[in-house]
């Protein structure tokens, strides 16, 4: 973030790439710092729409209002700050002043002329939406500036906005930092703590006595919880995703229930933490998981079933797990899992995974194919030939 801050102070925008949603690259620069030269640079080499984005709630408090829209974008009334009597709002010098003023929270709608020539967009919260608007506002804020960003899409020689290679070339040519929206999100989750402990209580179970911990959660607003057994040093951690069929109904279609029991035994023995995440069905929910089961009954595997239903093979995001661990004071862990994606994601979110400890569930004739698919298509680290199949 220091590098980004320095670059902004030197008058260089960042190129921010959205590899997933829109497949677009935008110039991003703090509205607070923008000069006529930078307005000229981003409009000349970007060629997309020149906009200022700010937090939606702040814009409303300052009197800016939303335009009626049947479009995905969250447009507010475009404005000009009248810097001189002859102001028309369009010259780079005037647009720069309008941007600077928008970044100044003391100005309100009445100080501007409208409808003007600087397009204004409201960003929602980054945990709810991961578009250019939200990520650019948080990027500028994390770099230490007022959370108002200037963004302009980068179009190639033919006017195409989806040419990411062209955007990387522009970055090289002008020595600009290129970031992706996921990279900004990882940094945001590492820095901004949105989860805190709400309550802790005595929790006896058939595996032994734990403490149950609930959380105040401004990240995804779901009721995740933890079981903690007192530990010294690096805790053994299990991050278990909800599987109501396996955890509560003893389903044999998967190995979740037996993994949960084994994990509680191991954590009770060595001390550690179990996080129970409400991401049923690898994040697609119970209704869709049953739809995926229906496809699996027709012979499709668990990976392809998700894809056929229009989801990613695995929709889970472990940002919430990283923040819960931080709230519990555990930033270095030993992780109980066979799933390499859990390790990769946690590390991106700033958790140090000292060791991965395998966790085998029980195999049976109903879940064997499911487990094999995990090994073959999700790169789970399980040696299937060594496991005993029961029932
Ligand atoms: N979409 C979908 N989800 C499933 C299916 N079977 C089980 N699940 C879900 O898969 C998740 C398994 O969670 P975990 O055991 O924490 O994670 P894992 O990917 O198995 O990785 P491990 O840490 O090695 O156990 C649960 O949310 C289950 O509800 C299926 O066929 N389709
Ligand atoms: Mg865009
Ligand atoms: Mg599992
Ligand atoms: Zn399951």
Automatic annotation (TrEMBL):
Enzyme Commission identifier(s): 3.5.4.25
GO molecular function, one term: 3,4-dihydroxy-2-butanone-4-phosphate synthase activity
Sequence positions that bind GTP: 238-242, 259, 280-282, 302, 337, 342
Domain GTP cyclohydrolase II: start-end pairs: 200-358
GO CC annotation: cytosol
Key words of the record: GTP-binding, Hydrolase, Metal-binding, Nucleotide-binding, Riboflavin biosynthesis, Zinc
Xref: InterPro entries: DHBP_synth_RibB-like_a/b_dom (IPR017945), DHBP_synthase_RibB (IPR000422), GTP_cyclohydro_II (IPR032677), RibA (IPR000926), RibA-like_sf (IPR036144)
Cofactor(s) listed in the protein's UniProt record: Zn(2+)
SUPFAM superfamilies from the UniProt entry: RibA-like, YrdC/RibB
Membership in a protein family: In the N-terminal section; belongs to the DHBP synthase family. Belongs to the GTP cyclohydrolase II family.
Role played: Catalyzes the conversion of D-ribulose 5-phosphate to formate and 3,4-dihydroxy-2-butanone 4-phosphate. Catalyzes the conversion of GTP to 2,5-diamino-6-ribosylamino-4(3H)-pyrimidinone 5'-phosphate (DARP), formate and pyrophosphate.
HAMAP family documented for this protein: RibA
Protein name: GTP cyclohydrolase-2
């Amino acid at each position: 973030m220091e590098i980004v801050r320095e670059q902004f102070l030197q008058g260089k925008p960042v190129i921010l790439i959205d590899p997933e949603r829109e497949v677009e690259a935008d110039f991003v620069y703090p509205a607070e710092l923008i000069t006529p030269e930078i307005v000229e640079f981003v409009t000349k080499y970007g060629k997309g729409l020149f906009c200022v984005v700010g937090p939606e709630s702040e814009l409303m408090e300052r009197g800016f209002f939303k335009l009626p829209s049947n479009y995905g974008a969250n447009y507010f009334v475009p404005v000009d700050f009248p810097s001189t009597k002859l102001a028309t709002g369009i010259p780079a010098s005037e647009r720069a002043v309008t941007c600077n003023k928008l970044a100044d929270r003391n100005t309100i709608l009445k100080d501007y002329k409208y409808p003007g020539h600087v397009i204004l967009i409201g960003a929602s919260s980054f945990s709810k939406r991961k578009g250019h608007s939200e990520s650019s506002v948080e990027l500028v804020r994390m770099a230490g500036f007022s959370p108002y960003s200037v963004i302009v899409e980068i179009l190639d020689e033919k006017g195409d906005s989806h040419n990411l290679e062209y955007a990387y070339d522009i970055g090289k040519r002008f020595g600009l930092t290129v970031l992706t929206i996921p990279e900004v999100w990882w940094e945001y989750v590492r820095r901004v703590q949105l989860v805190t402990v709400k309550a802790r209580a005595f929790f006896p179970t058939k595996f032994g006595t734990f403490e149950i911990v609930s959380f105040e959660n401004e990240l995804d607003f779901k009721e995740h919880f933890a079981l903690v057994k007192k530990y010294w040093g690096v805790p053994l951690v299990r991050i278990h995703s909800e599987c109501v069929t396996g955890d509560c109904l003893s389903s044999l279609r998967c190995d979740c229930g037996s993994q949960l029991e084994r994990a509680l035994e191991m954590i009770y023995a060595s001390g550690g933490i179990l996080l129970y995440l409400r991401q049923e069905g690898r994040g697609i929910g119970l209704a869709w998981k049953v739809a995926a089961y229906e496809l699996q009954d027709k012979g499709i595997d668990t990976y392809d079933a998700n894809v056929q239903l229009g989801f990613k093979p695995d929709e889970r995001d472990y940002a919430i797990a990283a923040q819960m661990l931080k709230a519990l004071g555990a930033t270095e862990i030993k992780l109980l899992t066979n799933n390499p994606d859990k390790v990769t994601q946690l590390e991106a979110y700033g958790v140090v995974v000292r060791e991965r400890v395998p966790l085998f569930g029980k195999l049976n004739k109903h879940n064997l194919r499911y487990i094999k698919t995990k090994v073959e298509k999700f790169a789970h680290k399980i040696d299937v030939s060594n496991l005993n199949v029961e029932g």
